[in-house]
Design goal:
The chain is of the alpha/beta class. The protein is built from 19 helices and 14 strands. The protein is elongated, with a radius of gyration of 36 Å.
């Protein structure tokens, strides 16, 4: 991500100075015009008109430059945030899976939406209001000193009072605003979760409790939001009271200077105008301070997300052939000091059909995760075709694997797009063949637009089983030498599962395959069955061998048959 453009800052600085000068110089001319209005029938209209026309030109310059500054600042702010969003997207696609698993998705979405918009507002306000206000203050101060040092000191003395008042309110507002953003992320997460699990909520009669949970977060969000708004609303009235007191004191002091030192009415009026111009930016600063604070907080959150180490996929590109897969003393833990896989030693021969079984939490899916390098192991080695998977690129590794997960994942697009997701160059005939093998061809043909039907992961026109069949077709069409099925048929009816199992048998005949099984009746013909328990590989062998051993596998198998 590039740093803020020095050229943009330089341009807006120069334009802001010229615009501020065009605005601030006007009271001087108006003061001169007032001094030309001496009394009844004693007004130099020619000079007054000339002065007022000059003032009009200065105002036109001021308005045009202000518009130009606003345009440049807005364009720059949008492009700046656009780059950050692109960088965030790049990082999120390459962050370790553990980062996505341990951070609220609502919080991550807020980085792109709420935080992005707040940062745009903050940059815009900084390049327009802040710069212009600073120059207006400095130029007004110069003209005030030219008119009266005493009255200028009075105006300056009021500034610290306004500053500390604004600062005190801003600090409290900043703390509350950060809390409000955290609660906003919780709200987003809750709503997203409720939408994705709507059927579960209805089936479990959890709708009322879900609504109550939302109300608790929303109530706290509203309370914090009200406090933020109240504090923000207090800033302007407080500063204006101080300003009004300042004007009253200026009136008294100005009258004194006019009576004793001959200060003209025009000069007094010009000075009061300058004092208004001098203090007005402070009012604006206090009004936009919450936006700048919010932008700063948003930028910090974005930078924190960008600082997360990106997986750049180091290693060498290798062409992996179908060969043995070896686990050597592999240990893995998601959380420190809580091992999931312990001292795993295993050799898988080429073209083996490998079943992974065990109770919930035994480490079955974790074994797949470390094989695919969704997570890196803590110690040991995993070798494929003699290559240590930690030393080769993940692209090299995953190019020879296709996987079907327990939960179907579809991207928004046509059915054809989803099936050909891993192999965009696949032909129509290959797609038809894959869909027939996966058991989804018939129901696809019944749709109005068939393979061109638009779907996504939230589509309600298909059952979960039908979506899963599409993901299975997607894995088949990739035609990789290693295929992994993580309880891929758990959402499919018995009849469809039987058909797909037959298709898998044909598919696996010339591939090395792993499948996590929940129905042990499907593993009896596996070349190798891995029995996992508490992170350990406690048994391995064929169905016949394991049944003969009369160990844990036999207990599982007999229990599943009873059920």
């Amino acid at each position: 991500m590039r740093k803020p453009s020095k050229l943009i800052i330089l341009i807006t600085t120069i334009l802001s100075f010229i615009a501020a000068f065009a605005l601030v110089v006007v009271p001087m001319y108006i003061g001169q015009a007032v001094d030309l209005m001496i009394g009844v029938n004693n007004v130099d209209l020619t000079q007054v008109k000339s002065i007022l026309i000059t003032c009009l030109w200065f105002y036109l310059v001021y308005f045009f430059l202000n518009w130009l500054i606003a345009y440049i600042s807005n364009e720059y702010a949008i492009k700046f945030v656009y780059e950050i969003r692109n960088k965030l997207e790049f990082n999120l696609m390459r962050n370790p899976l553990a980062y996505l698993d341990t951070n609220s998705h609502g919080k991550l979405l807020n980085l792109f939406t709420i935080d992005g918009e707040l940062l745009i507002d903050g940059i815009y306000q900084g390049l327009t209001q802040l710069l212009n206000g600073v120059f207006v203050i400095l130029i007004s101060l110069y003209f005030m000193l030219q008119l009266s040092i005493g009255m200028t000191i009075l105006v300056i003395l009021m500034v610290p009072i306004m500053y500390y008042t604004s600062k005190t309110l801003a600090k409290k507002s900043q703390r509350l605003f950060r809390k409000q953003q955290v609660l906003a992320g919780q709200l987003s997460s809750h709503v997203k979760e409720a939408m994705e699990n709507h059927e579960l909520i209805l089936n479990a009669n959890y709708a009322n409790q879900s609504a109550k949970d939302f109300e608790v977060i929303h109530a706290e969000y509203n309370i914090v939001g009200e406090k933020v708004q109240i504090l923000g609303a207090l800033v302007n009235p407080t500063v204006r009271v101080i300003n009004n007191l300042n004007y009253a004191l200026l009136g008294l002091l100005g009258a004194y200077y006019a009576y004793n030192y001959g200060l003209s009415v025009g000069s007094l009026m010009a000075f009061i105008s300058y004092s208004i111009l001098f203090t007005k930016p402070f009012n604006e600063f206090s009004a936009i301070i919450s936006q700048i604070v919010a932008a700063k907080a948003s930028y910090e959150r974005m930078q924190a997300a960008l600082s997360v180490e990106v997986d750049l996929d180091p290693g060498k590109e290798v062409a992996i052939k179908e060969s043995s897969i070896v686990f050597e003393a592999v240990n893995f833990e998601y959380v420190k000091d809580k091992p999931i896989i312990k001292d795993l030693n295993l050799t898988i021969q080429p073209l083996s059909k490998v079943a992974i079984v065990g109770p919930t939490g035994a480490g079955k899916s974790t074994l797949i995760n470390i094989l695919m390098r969704y997570y890196d192991i803590n110690s040991g080695k995993i070798l494929i075709d003699g290559h240590d998977t930690q030393t080769i690129t993940k692209q090299s590794l995953r190019s020879v694997m296709s996987i079907v997960l327990q939960e179907p994942w579809l991207t928004k697009g046509s059915i054809a797009d989803n099936i050909k997701y891993g192999n965009p160059k696949a032909t129509y005939e290959e797609m038809v063949t894959a869909s027939k093998q996966a058991g989804c061809y018939d129901f696809i043909m019944q749709l109005d637009k068939q393979f061109d039907t638009i779907i996504d992961s939230a589509s309600t026109t298909m059952s979960t089983g039908q979506k899963q069949m599409i993901t299975i077709a997607r894995a088949i069409i990739v035609n990789s030498p290693i295929i992994i099925l993580d309880e891929a048929t758990s959402n499919i009816d018995v009849v469809s599962e039987y058909k797909i199992q037959k298709a898998f048998e044909e598919l696996m005949s010339n591939k090395t395959s792993f499948f996590v099984a929940h129905h042990l009746s499907t593993v009896v013909d596996a070349d190798l069955i891995l029995v996992m328990k508490d992170g350990y590989l406690i048994e391995q062998g064929s169905h016949k061998e394991l049944m003969a051993n009369k160990g844990f596998y036999k207990q599982l198998y007999e229990s599943s048959n009873v059920l």
